[in-house]
Amino acid sequence: MKPLLVSSALLLVALFSAAQDQPSSQQPSSPSSSGPQSNPVRPTPESQARAKKIYSYDCAMCHGEKGDGKGDVASDMKLTLRDYTKPDALKDFSDRQLYDIIENGKGQMPGEGPRAKPDEIWNLVIYLRSMSKK
Ligand code: HEC
User: In whole numbers, what is the pLDDT of the chain averaged over residues?
Assistant: First the structure.
């Protein structure tokens, strides 16, 4: 009788500690800063019209209406900006890098932050890349 009691006691202890382990075995939550690396958005005429509008309100004063980097504010602030009408102007940037700069800003550039939705920022990336094709 005795060995059976001991082993069932051990079994109970094992079950109990297994049950206690469970909360700590949850997956760590993934970091919030990660997101798609390449553009997840398919441009439509509507989404690109929206991107053009956002660009003309929030970006053209520096980057220029056509993307040539000759906006009024840019010349007031004596900024030297890339010319997006040149095909190789953005070739060293990934879509993800452009997204992050538009969202967060960089140097003298203010970010769009929460003013633009993720889809709108991805469409801005597509819009910038299309400026050299005109
Ligand atoms: C106040 C002027 C200003 C405004 C407004 C502005 N930018 Fe910029 N932008 C800059 C400057 C200056 C840089 C270069 C930053 C650096 O490299 O230090 C830059 C860099 C960038 C870059 C990185 C590639 C590059 O040319 O170096 C992208 C992409 C960009 N801007 C897009 C945008 C978009 C899209 C908007 C509107 C939502 C916008 N910018 C609004 C000034 C501006």
Answer: 86
In sequence order, what DSSP letters do the residues of the chain get, joined into one string? Answer: -HHHHHHHHHHHHHHHHHHHHGGGGSPPPPPTT---SS--PPP-HHHHHHHHHHHHHHTHHHH-TTSSS--HHHHHTT-----TTSTTTTTTS-HHHHHHHHHHEETTEEP-GGGS-HHHHHHHHHHHHHGGG-
* Span from the CA of 22 to the centroid of ligand 1 (angstroms): 48
CATH number for the domain spanning 128: value is 1.10.760.10
Pocket test for ligand 1, best of 63, 127, 129, 130 (most atoms within 8 A of CB): 63
Domain assignment present for residue 33? The answer is no
Q: What is the pTM of this model?
A: 0.80
> How many folded domains does the chain comprise?
1
126 lines ligand 1 (CB under 6 A): no
Instruction: Indicate whether 8 belongs to any domain.
Output: no
- Per the model's pLDDT, the better-predicted residue between 79 and 35 turns out to be 79
Question: Does the CB atom of residue 57 touch ligand 1 within 6 A?
Answer: no
